[in-house]
Amino acid sequence: MGCQMNLADSERIEGQLQSMGIRPLNPEVDEKSIHPDVVVLNTCSIREHAESKVYSYLGPYAKRKREGEDVAIVVAGCVAQQESEALLRRVPEVDLVMGPQYANRLSDFFEDIANGNQVVATEATHIMEDSSKPRRQSKVCAWVNVIYGCNERCAFCIVPTTRGVEQSRPLESIVQEVESLVEQGYKEVTLLGQNIDAYGRDMVPKKRFSELLNIVGNVPGLKRLRFVTSHPRYMSLSVVDEILNTPSACEYFHIPFQSGSNEILASMGRGHTREKYLRIVDRIRSKIPDAAISADVIVGFPGETEKDFQDTLDLMEEVVFDNINTAAYSPRPNTPAATWTNQIPEEIKKERLQRINVLVKEHAKERRARMLGRTVEVLVEERNVKVPTQVTGRTVHNYLVHFEGDIDKLEGELVNVQIDNCETFYLSGAQVE
Ligand code: SAM
Ligand code: F3S
Question: Which residues form the TRAM domain (predicted)?
Fold first, then answer.
């Protein structure tokens, strides 16, 4: 469940399970999948809804265990970190509660739980360099962590509590991982960090993210490099220059703005204003006019007036984003904003979310429409699940593209596609030579 960081952790957890001889079950073909020996939930607690899903998933396994079935239950990720021992009190059938900082240490705990002990691993720890091999979902695109944790304290956000303080990975390990990915045939790498611009500030001597971008982007054989998430307070314009200098770096930015109102931004503790955000967008577009920009935004943050919300819509009209992840504010435990008395009623949050989503879609379509008639380069990732005669890939701008093709021949290939149809969140067309 959850963000890309969690997906990357899940791949590492799966890799460790596999090296212990535990194989994944496929619910569609494996009868045993309703009676597994081990269940691992890698959980997300960014919003209350994500958290409550964990308990509904756990329910049936806990029940079977109470009825005598021998199943090891592991809860990993941010809910594990947030709840720690309390999770064992709530669901006593759980064997291991393991925070995100332990995602590459699952195997350390297995003997203990095999001996019938319950284990809680949520102490803050130094994240060791990973010697395990992730079991990656894609053969074409890979996630690579560059900085764990977050030192910001956005008033709504639980991530600093669940993922701990920033820990940058050594540059050499990152480069080695990317080189090995290229050797294995990967074409695209996405560098991951909650605040990626903070890369290297905890190191001695300090390093800069643009330096990392340059070095990784020049790994021979790497076709595409992406990175998330940029923070408007820290994003340096040298990153924009680096993208121009690095052919593999995609013209794509994910920069959450969270709100278009300066009052709300100040109470969120974001450390940037709407003007600063707009200046970043201007600089990007003046240097890379065709760049794609996506973002995250929250509606219904405590104290948000209709005027504040309107400021958010106005900012969107000014920028016209390629995509935005929208969310209604959800109060999270141990975050300042959750205790404030100026909470917004659920109906208003819901109504604002609906209104904002209409604009997100309108802009997404408008942005994609400029591709009509253009020939774009698509990195083919998989079969189109809805139309099996088609394949699916993405452009440098992170637009999904579907076109007729044979996945066995095209997987991992960079293909030129002429676009003849633009929908809200995807494009389609035909392969050209
Ligand atoms: N590190 C990133 C950043 O700089 O914003 C993203 C962190 S979080 C995994 C992803 C997004 O979830 C945030 O950008 C924010 O929009 C949303 N989010 C975080 N806490 C939230 C909350 N309490 N309620 C609603 N949305 C939330
Ligand atoms: Fe959360 Fe703000 Fe960090 S959104 S992950 S505290 S930059």
Answer: 369-433
Q: Are 357 and 326 in contact (CB under 8 A)?
A: yes
**What is the count of structural domains for the chain?**
3
CATH number, domain of 417, equals 2.40.50
Q: CA nearest 288: which of 233, 346, 245, 232? A: 245
133 exposure class (CB count in 10 Å sphere: 0-12, 13-18, 19+): middle
Nearest CA to ligand 2 atom 1: 157
Query: Residue 67 phi/psi, 5° resolution?
Result: -85, 5
Whole-number pLDDT of residue 77 = 97
User: What distance in angstroms lies between residue 237's CA and the mean position of ligand 2's atoms?
Assistant: 20
Residue 127 lies in a domain: no
Q: Sheet harboring 141-145: ordered strands across? A: 141-145, 188-192, 224-228
On the CB side of 397, CA atoms within 13 Å amount to 23
Q: What average pLDDT score do residues 72-100 get?
A: 96
Distance 31 CA to ligand 2 centre (A): 41
Mean pLDDT of 144-154: 96
The whole-number pLDDT of residue 34 equals 73
